[in-house]
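Contributing: when you submit paired examples, paste them exactly as shown. First protein:
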Amino acid sequence: MEAFELSILKKRNITAGFVHLITGTIVIIFYALTKGAHGRANFEAFRNTPATSDDASETRMCSTQTGTFSLPSQCQTTINFTKPVKVASFNVVYGAIAFFFITALAHFFYGTDGFNSGAYSRAIEQGWNPYRWFEYASSASLMTVLIGLSDGNRDATSLWALYIMTAAMMFNGYTVESLLRGKAKIADSARDSIKSSTLAGWTLFIGIWVALIYSFATLVSDVKTKFSAEVDPDNGSAIKVPTWIWIIVILQLIYYALFGFIQLKHINSRLSNKPFEFSKIESMYITLSYVAKVSLAAGIGYGLIFRTRSCPALT
């Protein structure tokens, strides 16, 4: 890669670092000035707890009773659950601020050439950026949890699974990009690994978004059912899931997919031995990363800060 292209990338990363830092600071200021939004930014996560025997909700089927099981005293237990128990409270505005600052730090690392170690230059010259995938594993995984909380998912186990699945998806991206680096023709064995890792990454993408869309569809259905006889006191219309949540879900689905399409473009160029500049791939990631983050923060900020008012609780 020519020196001027690398120089432009460094400057672009420094600019992106300041843009993320400034955006995160703006969110802090608006949040600090809007006291009424503070309580609404805390989203609770729950876990299911088994009912006790006093609840008469546990059903047992033992071998001595049914003759179904082959081992002595082997039992099958079906456990019912009581009301979920709160295990955590998560402030989604703090989460949005965190991913801006995580990304800002990463961009300053790139823009200063690995804090002046030359690490970023060496990686880009080889045709990849390994550090980006570790940053995404932190920031994008946090974003996925925020999307899940925003679209109605309150199950702690599910939210942890979404976080880990997103991180795993990013490490598949790392694997693919590591196999694409360099300019030599890619060996057949590496091609197989690229294809399998890409398939694994897209499988994780589908799993993540099936879970997110399912929780959102459930939220929409539940609100429609539970509040069908009530009206919004501000405008007299039926109570429904706010438009800003719809926008968050739809836009983030598109942006997450676009990250995958950028890598598909990279894969296609390398496997077909077409000439291409990795700096363009890197620039696409820089731009898309900011757009995805600012749109999520804007949606959360609009819904929880600018639209703060007295609303009926969704119970």
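Second protein:
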Amino acid sequence: MSTKKFSDEELIAAFEQYGSPQRIAEHFNVNVCKIYERRKNVERQHGIVLGSFAAPQKSIQQTLIPQNKKIIEHTVDNGQVFIASDAHYWPGEVSTGHKAFITLLKKHKPHTVIMNGDVFDGARTSRHDPLYKHETPTAKQEIEACQERLHEIVNAAKNAKRFWTFGNHDTRLYRYILSNAPEAAVITGSDIFDYFPGWHTCWRIDLNGSTVVKHRWHGGIHATHNNALKSMLRLNQGSAAFVTGHLHKLCVTPWRGIAGTIWGVDTGTLADPLGDQFSYLEGNPTVWASGFAVLTFKDGKLLPPELCEVVNGHAYFRGERIV
């Protein structure tokens, strides 16, 4: 990586032109961490704020669904629903799973895109103690990384309906502020969802009255089986699904009865399981898998769920290498 030097004025101009720290790092051919460091110094010395980190004004449509609407009902007669979860977007890192997601969004032009929780990681706002010699990004840096990645998703699927279910990591920032400065919790910008207009957010999404998408429910090695078995979903033309993230496993488990099939789906993690955001694993092996799920509806009926999975650094879907 180059160590090209650039002036404060050049950096300010770059922020005005590009906005994104990652794009500016590519422009100057330097590591994105250098951009974050320089920006901090420039903001302090010049008394300005650089970048796209800003809460939306009241004139912009707010993201949050009213408190009395925890569940969104959504209909897909014909088309695909792309569901990714647990992206844990991190500054300077673009995972293979995310690249594959963007590639297939452009190719398939789905009806709906769902980010099924934990888009944001919130390393510094968690309840866990800091790790040994492990520097984590600020909430500001993380939100900017999320803005950049979700902007790519919006551009790749311009006509798709967009939803974001609450993940336990997504709520860390608000919980942190509410616990430490409750008076500030009512201020616009105290919740990360304030920074993502155009994404409909909720705890749960019901597709066609027979398929449920939410961040988490049962845990353990039989989670998808138990989700399907205990959901008591109403079958639509002989099929239904209960889709969750949280466990990062990426798998499909069918529960078949006389009336039809209910699939339990784990949407895996869009992140790299070996990424810096998961340093707390201390290098231990894990059953996690990077990828995402694709649901296809035909005349309102759910067809068998499909997975895109990252294997040995490459993403595959329907037997084809995507990235």
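If you have annotations for the second protein, write them as plain sentences, like these:
The two ends are 23 Å apart (CA to CA).
The longest strand covers residues 291-298.
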